Amino acid sequence: MKPLLLCLALAAWPAVGEQRGESVAPIALYTQFQQDPPPAVLASLQDEVESIMSPIGMHFEWRSLSASRGNEVSAELAVITFKGRCDTAGMASRSINPGALGWTHVSDGIILPFSDVDCDRIRGFIQKELLTLDHVGRVAAFGRAIGRVVAHELYHIFANTQHHGSDGVAKAAYTAQELVADDFQFEQKETLALRAGKVHSLVEHTTGTPPL
Question: How many angstroms from the chain centroid is the CA of residue 21?
């Protein structure tokens, strides 16, 4: 089992302010990739994040950081940086002990809305399981695995906590099988923590949606 570490940033990032208004504003996820992923991997990644987070009442608008004009409106935001190659090329029939698969930046005990996800490490960790699938299934499973690491880091950001759960998406360590399984969700305690968070309350306020 490999830990998904909440790592400490060595340098402080600037705080991101809230933008409020009368119209409904989405939660924006700004992404930047070291190497652009295949469209099928990106679609699977985004679908998995929505599958995990939408039952909690959190929906996202995906935006490219490089294409941002700096004047977009959002209820709240997070920035996800994807390191390495987010594709299924060059796999071997053995698992690699990669270290942390993702981490969220913290400065002076304050959780910042910036996370890194390492596609090379995720692929190395689950490549043995991926090679048992056909090409279409392999791409979909790899995208799901990346999406689960993203959802884990979003939990730290939007629940505003450094703590991990005892099971489910918020736990500190995953097995390769959990990363490629058909379904993986938050446990009740972590779901409640996200629903009690500032962002969930803000979205309810702007949309008029009652608590779940």
Answer: 26
| Sequence letter at residue 147 | G
Per-residue pLDDT of the chain (212 residues; tens, 9 = 90+): 333 334 322 222 233 333 333 334 579 999 999 999 999 999 999 999 999 999 998 989 999 998 877 766 667 899 999 999 999 998 988 888 878 999 999 999 999 999 999 999 999 999 999 999 999 999 999 999 999 999 999 999 999 999 999 999 999 999 999 999 999 999 999 999 998 875 555 444 443 333 22
One-character DSSP codes across 103-157:
EEEEETTEEEEEEEEEHHHHHHHHHHHHTTS-HHHHHHHHHHHHHHHHHHHHHHH
- CA angle 157–161–165, rounded 5-degree value: 105
Single-letter amino acid code for the residue at 164: H
3-state secondary structure of 46: helix
Phi-psi map region of 57: left, alpha, beta (phi>0 left; psi -120 to 50 alpha): left
What are the sequence ranges of the domains in the chain? 2-10+25-203
**Residues in the chain, total:** 212
Contact 28, 63 (CB under 8 A): yes
Name the architecture of domain 2-10+25-203: 3-Layer(aba) Sandwich (3.40)
